[in-house]
Specification:
- The chain is α/β, with parallel strands linked by helices.
- The protein folds into 4 domains: 15-136, DnaA, N-terminal domain (GMP Synthetase, Chain A, domain 3, 2-Layer Sandwich), CATH 3.30.300; 155-317, P-loop containing nucleotide triphosphate hydrolases (Rossmann fold, 3-Layer(aba) Sandwich); 322-389, Helicase, Ruva Protein, domain 3 (Orthogonal Bundle); 398-489, Chromosomal Replication Initiator Protein Dnaa, Chain: A (Orthogonal Bundle), CATH 1.10.1750.
- It is 51% helix and 9% strand.
- It has helices spanning 15-18, 34-50, 53-60, 79-88, 90-101, 128-134, 172-182, 201-214, 226-238, 242-250, 267-282, 303-309, 322-335, 342-351, 356-373, 379-389, 398-409, 413-417, 423-439, 444-450, 455-470, 474-489; strands at 30-31, 64-68, 71-76, 110-114, 135-136, 190-195, 221-225, 254-258, 286-291, 313-317.
- The protein has a 5-stranded mixed β-sheet with strand order 1-2-3-4-5. Strands 7-8-9-6-10 form a 5-stranded parallel β-sheet, sandwiched between helices.
- α11 (267-282) links the parallel β8 and β9.
- α19 crosses α21 (455-470).
- The longest helix is centred in the C-terminal third of the chain and has 18 residues, at 356-373.
- It is globular.
- The two termini are 42 Å apart.
């Protein structure tokens, strides 16, 4: 009997037990039975109360539900709908399901699937391999780090591939270096990639993992954010299991470590990361670091760790040019299973000059509106949507960002410039830092100087916003809504 194990080697417990709740009854774990139909009906009623009627009709009504091993599995009719639910509705779905399943929202194990082509086929007729291929991975911070060759890991665990990455002048060096990491005889052993948010750092790191897991090298690979690394380390400290933690990391061949700026000011985390990286590099292993900042911009980071960041290839990924934007839009439309007319593609590519998330968000909105109106993608509809995303020809300057942040948070500019540590003032300042870094060419020193703050404070504020945006907490959702509103008012994208 094979027992699946978690990232750190512990046997997985049923969902209810993991959440500290009483075990679910057996009837709740039995697939497409009447109890699940009743439960999904209740969940649907909750969603009707939470959502606009049009949103519910288009995105929720077509879903089919089942319970499998304590997880709520929702089958969407196509990949576009599944992707939209995955990126936009997870929190709402969990909140609606929680009272019905008797769990806290964060404890609801939710999986979005793509329904098979044969809608009338019984679920039991699908093979395990077919089901695995249809399941979309939940947003997760880490992937398995087995002590042996990762035979049980599936390619489906990786969200992104090189084949889906549009290469152009702004990212060609980073992509070439990342592909070299995947070659057994490659020259690149250490790669540091920095860019603004939404330009492909995560896509590139996960593409490396997907490529390595797909070939026959048997390389032991781990993908972790720096925050996930830190939380695992803290858990190991509390359980007096630090040596085992180190041991699992020492066994790796490739480490993909994202958002390393999170380590700033955390000395113990830095010491552990340094020990892991030194050991990995000494054994000939490979490591990829990503960050929103270049190594020279990082503050309160051990000089030895920075030295290891800089020991290989350093590269930056910039914003895509117009030709790249055309290719990105065409490829995104294809993944959404829609035909994007050349005229509409040209219009979007010429007007959307932000990051990849901007283009994806605008395209999502365009497709959604076309489906609600039951019409095709056309220039008139595209112009209507573009008014929300590209009302200006260039990004906002710092005064505009400050004004929009103040309007969004109900603050006055003098409050942002004050020394106040009130929660709303700190949150407002951090949001300004984040948006200024993302949408202007100002240096960290110039951004901080506006508020009489040091550039290390700016880095800390940006890191705080990025961390909260990556979470599905109430504060993270609040910030995401504020950033979305601000960017729309500035003619830019949603930064989800």
């Amino acid at each position: 009997m094979i027992i699946e194990k978690s990232l750190w080697g512990k046997q997985k417990r049923p969902l209810a037990q993991r959440a500290g709740n009483p075990p679910l009854p057996e009837s709740a774990l039995s697939g497409y039975k009447a109890p699940m139909r009743d439960q999904w009906a209740e969940i649907s009623e909750n969603l009707k109360k939470m959502l606009d009627s049009g949103v519910f009709k288009v995105w929720i009504a077509p879903l089919r539900a089942r319970l499998e091993d304590g997880a709520l599995c929702l089958a969407a009719p196509n990949a576009f709908m599944a992707g939209w639910l995955e990126s936009r509705m997870l929190c709402t779905l969990r909140e609606a399901a929680a009272p019905v399943l008797g769990l806290a929202p964060e404890a609801v194990d939710l999986r979005i699937e793509i329904a098979g082509n044969d809608r009338n086929a019984a679920p039991e007729a699908a093979s395990t391999a077919d089901l695995a291929a249809r399941v979309l991975p939940r947003r997760q911070a880490s992937l398995p780090m087995p002590a042996v060759a990762p035979a049980f890991r599936r390619e489906a665990a990786w969200r992104y591939r090189f084949e889906d990455f549009v290469v152009g002048p702004s990212n060609s060096v980073a992509v070439a270096a990342a592909q070299d990491v995947c070659r057994s005889g490659g020259d690149v052993r250490t790669l540091f990639v920095n860019s603004a948010s939404g330009l492909g750092k995560t896509h590139l790191a996960q593409a490396v993992g997907q490529s390595l897991s797909r070939n026959s090298s048997g390389a032991r690979v781990a993908y972790l954010t720096a925050e996930e690394f830190a939380s695992r380390f803290v858990a190991a400290l509390r359980s007096h299991d630090v040596e085992a933690f180190k041991g699992r990391l020492r066994e790796l061949d490739v480490l993909l470590l994202e958002d390393v700026h999170f380590f700033q000011g955390k000395e113990k985390m830095q010491d552990m990361a340094l020990a892991v990286v030194k050991n990995l590099q000494a054994r000939g292993g490979r490591v990829i670091f990503t960050s929103s900042f270049s190594p020279r911009e990082l503050q309160r980071v051990d000089s030895q760790l920075v030295s290891h960041f800089c020991s290989g290839i350093l590269t930056n990924m910039g914003r895509p040019d117009e030709e790249m934007r055309r290719h990105i839009l065409t490829r995104k439309a294809r993944s959404f299973q829609v035909l994007l007319p050349d005229s509409v593609c040209d219009l979007l590519a010429s007007r959307l000059r932000g990051d990849v998330r901007q283009m994806e968000s605008c395209l999502n909105s365009l497709i959604f509106k076309a489906r609600l109106l039951n019409c095709g993608l056309n220039l008139d509809l595209a112009l209507e949507v573009l008014n929300q995303y590209a009302g200006v020809e260039c990004g906002p300057d710092l005064p505009t960002i400050i004004r929009l942040v103040c309007e969004s948070y109900g603050l006055e500019e003098r409050q942002l410039c004050s020394r106040s540590r009130r929660r709303e003032c700190v949150l407002g300042r951090n949001t300004v830092y984040y948006l200024a870094r993302k949408h202007t060419e100002l240096s960290l020193e110039e951004i901080g100087g506006t508020f009489n703050r040091r550039h290390s404070t700016v880095i800390k504020g940006i890191t705080s916003v990025e961390r909260e945006l990556s979470k599905e907490s109430s504060l993270g959702r609040q910030i995401a809504r504020a950033v979305d509103l601000i960017e729309r008012n500035a003619g830019l994208s949603a930064a989800q």
